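re the bet — no i am not wrong, look at it urself. input seq straight from the record:
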Amino acid sequence: MQGFPRVKTPCIGVCSTGIGDSVCRGCKRFAHEVIHWNGYTEEQKRIVDARLAQFLAQCVQNRIRVIDATLLAWQLQTQQVRHNPDHDPHCWVFALLKAGAGQIENPTEFGFEVDLRFRDVPLLALREEIDQEYFALSSAHFDRYHLVPDLFGEERVS
């Protein structure tokens, strides 16, 4: 597909698939996606990227609301935080939290607010909660849609 930018690897350099995880604790891709990433077409990479972005946005939205996407984008540019401008702005918030959650005192100055239920939770802890939920969601998706038991009790990747 021409006209689309190349999909960058979601790898963050802390792969856990080498120690037996079916879902990487770092990038949340499935083990077979990590292994075959360089052989995927751009369209296949886009499909994986879209799933990851959708899951991450969902997990962030459970705790955080973007109130000014323009301000958030400006802060990301100013702070030189790597993010995908094509993803949902809630993914941008997570990128910002990964880069410096401990340095953000007033989230509204960055274009987001924390849900009332979580306002007493430090942003560093909130980032970890989001990451754990993101991993759990990716793992549940893998378990539900990618492992098919056969009649002999063995599992195979579909």
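see?? Residues 148-154 have pLDDT under 50 and may be disordered. told u. also Residues 107 and 158 are 42 Å apart (CA to CA). so pay up
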